[in-house]
Design a protein that fits this description.
With 877 residues, the chain is α/β, with parallel strands linked by helices. The protein is built from 31 helices and 13 strands. Helix 16 crosses helix 22 and helix 30 (807-813) runs antiparallel to helix 31. The longest helix is centred in the N-terminal third of the chain and has 44 residues, at 105-148. The radius of gyration is 30 Å and the shape is globular.
């Protein structure tokens, strides 16, 4: 007779890298498979002997958190958030396949155009990053700070300081391309890659069936092995972005020096160094945008579907990227030489001019604003191209998008499929803010912030240039506007939803009931004493529902930032010829410190305050990044906490920006797939029920979902899926509709033959239901819609704990709302007057602390869900 010792419960943690001890709820664990990144653990006792579940089945935990939370260096990834966001935006575009799985040619062309616009925005972020580094090292440290401390610099070395600052700026950019190999760039992408060893079966498993897993059949690109191999153009992308960063720094150094290294004669076709660098920078940008469709690069080029010229084009771009990288290094050397020839005026400093007021120096600083205006035009071009193509793509895909009333409506994309626009522009806003924060923070720390008069009596501290002033002012104004709007909306939402929230509280703890004490001699817990707790529970439900408004929050920030960026760019470009300044009444939307006296009298007094608010906000931003990074040096919990954002963003392969951290999906998903395959192959023949139950929490549910789509139909018939605290409906299909959507969820559930249950709580701030929708808890009885539940089940399996006959009493006792296979748990866990059979005594108080997004596996309903899945019959009949 088979028992539960013949099956495996495989837990996959979610965001923030939950420790394996917490995942398995045991103080001692032992790694049984994997390496230092993908690790599989089981619980052991003090002597190292494996501890199994009470009914004898194997409990194993898959820990992938070291990919994003393992070392203190990864905590410094906070500074790369803009790169990760713009890269993730590429995967937020709508799918180009219709409901029948056919690729729409026009939609695909529009998607390629939108990707080109996103790559242009990614180029802007790289150039802005380099621009900020150049401002700090060449201007603030290499010139201003060095000029005021010339007495400490040995005679004859003062001319080397600006040149050394240029070289140091380049050395900061170069490590981002350390993984580059000249040979791979010269060879370009291979015509057909070798099989990835990680995608092959483990030795312990039998030969894989010859059945081919088609991603069209599975209706998600996660079923394509090419997704996990990565794009073969990534090396060329990385080389091009490094070259763009170096060209930007070289251009800043050359224009700052105002020196030419050879005679310039435009009539004879001899351009200056600055013109040459600018042309090479343009070539690098064009090559980056024209590299192709990175998301499908490996599949398109390696699958034999593309014409030969496409492969040739990618190979030549790879070679060109190597040439541009070498030319960018040469440009840095020439620009540093130009700065050395210009040098620092030691005699002026020794004459007592300790203030940075030398006219020729000030004119050279203004040259940075010229480059800043070029960056403004680049940002506008990227946003325009990406926006136009993304809107056109959303309109095109509207033909096969779900309509209100359809089952798929609950899985519809955010903002009609325009989320990529919002997230990409949010990345731009953050990138500009981070750059300005770096410049403002360093200039303040070194005491190099200039003071200029604003009007007859007003003085305002600057960053380094008028452009940085405008950014600081825009952040100050934007923060006030967004904070006011958010505060008003939150207050109205909280008041308007009060009665609706109380309905959720009534489900688990009716207001007219009393709750028994834990011990037999304890007094009952009266409902009036629970009033404060009931208010806290209602607040928790309200806070949890704020995740449904994430698109409004992002769009509010982006729209305010877009308006302010528009006037910032208009004001900066007004310095060029034939461009008028903004109307006088609108100039308050973008102000530099020396323009305060030009404002209307009614706003002249508080304009400097906004500039200071923005400057201090930027200073606070850089201080938080430094403090959190430093705190992560010795605190593993801090590293886990601040790396949560990367658990979501770093899942996706490099598509438009190569400086984002390495995507862990290319290892974690594949390693989980092979471990599942190993357990399926190792299960004894003839055992009833599912051999493996994969339990995915939060981001781990996405990893599990992707892993299951790499398995064959025969393997999936022996597997069940238990998701909990999952975003597979409330976030992932709405943000990434081409990868997780209603069709993909339904097809995966069908391939599992209905063996999928999801657990959720109203108080979970990050997750929600997956397999149900349209919930109305205030109706009598409560209403909802859900996927059809299989009606058949296996005969009771001997040794189950709880038994299959005990599942329904357990669900009723703990007030679980069964929405099909979506089980809504009460939070805190409701303690029944009498515990039903099959549940261990609860060692917690009757009214416990809210669990929210965590501790699902300690819920008394956990075992009932496992037993239900274990008894799901293959075929669902």
């Amino acid at each position: 007779m088979a028992t539960h010792a013949d099956w495996v419960e495989l837990r996959v943690h979610g965001v923030s890298g939950t420790p394996p001890e917490a995942m398995l709820a045991r103080p001692h664990v032992l790694q049984v498979d994997g390496d230092d990144k993908s690790r599989f653990f089981r619980a052991v006792d003090d002597e190292g002997r494996e501890i199994r579940a009470e009914d004898g089945h194997v409990v194993e935990g898959f820990h992938w958190g070291n990919y994003t939370s393992g070392s203190w260096r990864k905590a410094l990834w906070l500074a790369l958030i803009p790169f990760g966001l713009v890269n993730a935006a590429a995967f937020m575009l709508p799918p180009v396949e219709d409901n029948e799985g056919r690729v729409d040619p026009l939609a695909r062309r529009l998607r390629i155009g939108a990707m080109a616009g996103l790559r242009l925005q990614a180029v802007f972020l790289t150039a802005t990053f380099a621009f900020a580094i150049g401002m700090v090292l060449i201007d603030i440290i290499g010139t201003r700070w060095a000029y005021r401390h010339l007495s400490a610099i040995p005679d004859g070395f003062e001319n080397l300081v600006p040149a050394a600052a240029t070289v140091l700026a380049a050395l900061i950019i170069l490590p981002l391309g350390l993984s580059l190999r000249p040979k791979s760039l010269l060879d370009g992408p291979p015509a057909r890659p070798d099989p990835d060893p990680a995608l092959q079966p483990v030795d312990a498993a039998p030969p894989r069936p010859t059945e081919k897993v088609e991603h069209v059949q599975r209706r998600t690109p996660f079923a394509r092995p090419e997704f996990y191999r990565g794009d073969s153009d990534t090396s060329a992308f990385r080389a091009l972005h490094v070259a763009i960063g170096l060209f930007t720094i070289a251009l800043m150094a050359q224009r700052f020096s105002a020196r030419q290294l050879w005679s310039v004669d435009a009539s004879e076709g001899r351009p200056g160094l600055g013109v040459v660098i600018l042309i090479l920078l343009g070539v690098a940008i064009a090559a980056t945008v024209g590299l192709g469709d990175p998301e499908r690069g490996a599949t398109t080029l390696h699958g034999g579907a593309s014409r030969g010229w496409a492969l040739t084009w990618h190979r030549w771009i790879s070679r060109l990227s190597l040439v541009l990288l070498l030319l960018s290094l040469l440009s840095i050397a020439l620009a540093a030489r130009a700065l050395q020839l210009r040098g620092l005026p030691r005699e002026r400093a020794l004459d007592g001019l300790d203030r940075f007021r030398i006219p020729e120096f000030i004119s050279r600083v203004v040259e940075f604003d010229v480059i800043g205006r070029w960056l403004v035009m680049l940002a506008g071009a990227g946003a325009l191209v990406a926006g136009l193509f993304a809107v056109a793509l959303a309109v095109r895909t509207r033909r096969w998008r779900a309509r209100r009333g359809d089952e798929a409506w609950a899985f519809r994309p955010y903002s009609w499929g325009l989320t990529s626009i919002a997230v990409a522009n949010l990345a731009v806003v953050l990138g500009v803010g981070f750059a300005a924060a770096l410049v403002t923070g360093v200039s303040t720390a070194l005491g190099q912030r200039e003071v200029k008069a604003g009007g007859n009596s007003k003085k305002t501290a600057l960053g380094s240039t008028p452009l940085i002033d405008r950014v600081a002012y825009a952040w100050g104004l934007g923060i006030i506007l967004v904070a006011l709007a958010a505060g008003i909306c939150l207050l109205v939402s909280r008041i308007a939803s009060r009665q609706r929230l109380l309905a959720h509280v009534e489900v688990g703890y009716p207001s007219d009931a009393t709750y028994p004490g834990q011990r037999e001699d304890a007094e009952p817990y009266p409902a009036p004493r629970a009033a404060g707790w009931r208010h806290a529970l209602a607040s928790a439900v309200w806070e949890a529902r704020l995740k449904n408004q994430v698109q409004l929050i992002i769009w509010s920030i982006v729209l305010v930032g877009a308006v302010l960026a528009l006037f910032l760019g208009w004001s900066e470009l007004a310095a060029l010829k034939h461009i008028a300044r903004p109307p006088e009444d609108l100039r308050l939307l973008s102000v530099a410190s020396d323009e305060v006296n030009e404002l209307p009298d009614r706003v002249e007094s508080w304009a400097p305050v906004l500039a200071q608010v923005g400057a201090w906000t930027l200073l606070g931003l850089i201080a938080i990044l430094i403090a959190k990074g430093r705190q992560a040096l010795g605190d593993e919990q801090t590293r886990r906490g601040i790396n949560i954002v990367w658990d979501v963003v770093a899942f996706w392969p490099h598509a438009v920006h190569p400086f984002a951290p390495e995507p862990y999906s290319q290892r974690a998903v594949v390693d989980l797939t092979e471990r599942i395959r190993y357990h399926v192959a190792a299960a004894p023949d003839g055992v009833p029920g599912r051999s493996v139950i994969v339990c995915g929490h939060s981001q781990g549910s996405l990893v599990s979902f992707a892993a299951l789509n790499l398995l064959t139909d025969d393997e999936l018939s022996k597997i069940a899926l238990l998701t909990f605290g999952s975003q597979l409906r409330v976030i992932f299909p709405r943000a990434f509709p081409a990868y997780v959507n209603h069709t993909a969820i339904a097809s995966t559930r069908g391939l599992l033959e209905g063996a999928w249950i999801n657990l959720w709580r109203d108080t979970d701030p990050l997750a929600g239901p997956v397999l149900s929708w349209d919930h109305d808890i205030r109706a009598t009885p409560p209403r909802e819609a859900h996927f059809e539940v299989p009606v058949g089940r296996l005969e009771p399996i001997d040794g189950s704990l709880p038994t299959i006959d005990q599942v329904d009493p357990i669900i009723a006792a703990f007030a679980v709302w069964r929405c099909g296979d979506d089980w809504r748990l009460t939070d805190p866990t409701r303690r029944p007057v009498e515990l039903p059979p099959g549940v261990d005594p609860i060692a917690e108080a009757p009214i416990n602390a809210l669990r929210g997004h965590s501790r699902y596996w300690s819920d008394p309903v956990w075992g009932a869900a496992l037993t239900t899945l274990r008894h799901r019959r293959a075929g669902g009949a």
